[in-house]
Prior knowledge:
four-stranded parallel sheet
Amino acid sequence: MEEGKETKGKLTTEPKIERTSEEERDRLSELPDFVLLHIMNFIYTKDALRTCILSKRWKDLWKHLTTLSFYQSSLFNERRVVNFNKFVSQVLSCRDGSISLINVRLDIFESIGSQLLNRIMKYAVLHNVQQLTMYIPFYYGKISTYLDPIIFSCQSLTYLELHNISCWPPLELPKSLQLPALKTLRLSRVLFTATDNVCAEPFTTCNLLNTLVLNDCFLHNDAKILFISNSNLSSLKLNNLKIRDTFQHKVVLSTPNLSSLTVCIFGASSLSIQPLSSTCNLSCLEEGTIDIATDISHPVLIGWLQVFTNVKILTLSYETLKLILKDLSNLATMGSQPLCFVRLESLKFVTNRFRVISDEEVNKAVEYLLQNSPLIRVLLSKKLYHGSLLNYLGPVLAGLANHNRSQIGPSLEWDHNHQHHKGGL
């Protein structure tokens, strides 16, 4: 009998809605294990583990994860920290140890015990981890104090990001990184120490290293040279390299196959900026960027520019251009140490609507930079963040190109919000 209800003295009946077996199917659980695990590998391990309560099918599925991603909130709570540490320990104990790891990520915003951290590192190494990312506050500078160096001799590791999010001290790394499979390395706030001499050579044994990014890294007092030597390296970014004592320190490149080089300095003291040089001519260099937002001596700046003499596309920030103009205001430096960009095809100045530079200044800097360069064609461009400068920059660059027609060539190009504007001269 159908269920009914009384409405104004009348009994009305409503059909009972029955779900079909097709509608009641758990389509997600019907997916193959490898598909479910692929999805679960994109979420934090804590959320992946919660799926074990869904059904018997899900109970042990998380134990086969190939990605472990642990996140500790920045909101300090002692009980929360204790629970987090217990959770990580339980995951390592209960996960299926016969399955190799692909990726491990740690986002730790409060203190983590060195015992637990080293357990994670050993577990990762023993399970052939391929990618490791760590954002951790290392409150103690010595590796031996906090982090077991076993991770720096991992044979399976192809990708490593190590970010020391504590302000001080920098984390002191081993003198040599024994990572034969490593292809990408990103380091922040670490300290390089010298080997038997005054030279720090941490990357020489990373034979497959292709991409290297150094942020806010330091040279120890016992090291005078950071020697970046690697024949396979193709991309290098040096951001805010610093030293601790004197101006005697320097960075030397031995990277014959380098195709991309970026050097950025922000807010550093001029005494903490190292001279940059290369033992080879960097004949494969396609793209180069120099961005200096602090004062720097003329010899050091010229030394940096000389490293880029074989670059095809050179990008200079507004701040870097102003430094060049500052040096040019001293007539004694204008003709010293002439530069020669033998392969240059594109010269770019990056600015924004708040930092306007006159056509006379741009022209003066370009004449100085290109005075000895055997150029066939150069594209001068300015990347704009706002459209209000477009009308201003068009005449500036057109006038500059007309003034240097014999060197710059028949065309002009500049960028505006990723749209290309070209004008014949």
